[in-house]
Amino acid sequence: MEAANAKSFFWEAFPPLPTCRVYCSPTYQDGHLFVVGGCSQQALPLDSVEMLDVVSRKWLALPPMPTPRAGAAATMLGKQLLVIGGVDSMQSPLASVEVYNMDEGKWEKKADLAQASMGISAVEKDGALYALGGMGADTSPQALVRLYEPTKDLWLPLPSMPTPCYGASTFLHGNKIYVMGGRQGKLPVTALEAFDLEVRSWTRYPSVPSRRAFASCAMVDGCFFSLGGLQQPGPHNFYSRPHFVNTVEMFDLEQGSWSRLSRATRMRDKRADFVAGSLGGRVVAAGGLGNQSSPLGSVEGFNLAKKKWEPLPSMPTGRCSCSHLQAANLLFVIGGVAQGPSSAVEALCLRDGV
After folding, report:
1. Is the pLDDT of residue 353 over 50?
2. Sorted alphabetically, which InterPro entries does this protein's record hold (predicted)?
3. Contact 143, 182 (CB under 8 A)
4. Which residues contact 42 (CB under 8 A, 6 or more apart)?
């Protein structure tokens, strides 16, 4: 795919979130952005759900969830908004699953997960939902893979992930779900694994070459990227401190190997805890924390053909710890932390596709 010209990118600032929140769960369908739960400014889980009509630019408050939660997985299944797991006001993982029916305008409890879990990665494919990983009540990372069949309201166990983790990045590519990164307690995970939906088996690929906390992942044109983060000091380097990096590591599916790109192809800015995605045939890195005293507003895009990062328009509101969502020709950046909790909702767009 030919990369879009850097000049064709622009930011659209939408009306702010009616309810300020961090660690919310976004999902999107047919021009509507749904923002589910999260933590309030008092650090308590929220039951509120709000829907933005992208065309009219108006927010609508939906009926509250029966169970307040943060760190849940949220996805659309047809005309139903499915919310899975997360944590409650006691910081305990939840097993509860709830569905909002758009036509009926009400919530309904569904079959619980077999084990309580937060930080689940959810992927929808052909009307079925796959829930991968998570963190359990004992704070241990989980290797669980569950398939939800909505017509039967049933969770089916599938072969476990080779590497237990929570908060991983997932990418649906062809008939496989690729799982990359995530965490095990305080440790960042370097595994890259794929689940084949047809034969229901896992493939392990070579791990990300370097371990970095708060790195971000993206995929474009069959290539996976591990970007930036916070480099921890090595075991034999007692005097080094954690430091921000602009590392770029790329895995090519066809070649089956990682390449640590040259110094010339590192990101322009050192950053961690930032938004990464793909838009217009480019890998995009936006915001995050760097060596500055406040969150970054800078944005850059990687042109795969040129092996080059180029500046893109800056975020209207510099932030870190954002929720984000990829939808068609939009990369939504939602909430997060600026000088304090932010209600900003902004989307990086392409002029040709919006």
Report:
1. no
2. Kelch-typ_b-propeller, Kelch_1, Kelch_domain_containing_8
3. no
4. none
d(CA 172, CA 153): 23
Question: Quick check: helix, strand or coil at residue 8?
Answer: helix
Amino acid identity of 321?
Answer: S
Cα distance between the two ends of the chain = 18
- Which residues on adjacent β-strands are paired with residue 275? 286
- The pLDDT, as a whole number, for residue 354 is 39
Cβ pair 15, 59 in contact under 8 A: yes
Sequence-distant (6+) residues with CB within 8 A of 263 are none
The one-letter code for the residue type at 61 is A
Give the C-alpha separation, 153 to 110, whole Å.
7
The number of residues making up the chain comes to 354
Res. 232 pLDDT band, cuts 50 70 90: confident
Candidates 258, 255, 250; CA nearest to 278 is: 250
| 52 neighbors 35 (Cβ within 8 angstroms) | yes
- Mind spelling out the 3-state secondary structure of 283-294? EEEECCECCCCC
Strand order across the 73-77 sheet: 73-77, 80-84, 97-101, 106-110
Average pLDDT over residues 325-329: 90
Structure tokens at 99: 């569905």
Task: Record the tokens describing residue 275, joined without a space.
Answer: 């938004």
Instruction: Please tell me the number of Cα atoms within 13 Å of 353 on its side-chain side.
Output: 17
| Residue 269 vs residues 262, 277, 279, 299: alpha-carbon distances, Å | 15, 16, 19, 9
pTM of the model: 0.94
Of the candidates 224, 306, 208, the residue with the CA atom closest to the CA atom of residue 264: 306
Residue type, 35: V
User: By mean pLDDT, which of 112-121, 233-242, 337-346 is the weakest?
Assistant: 233-242
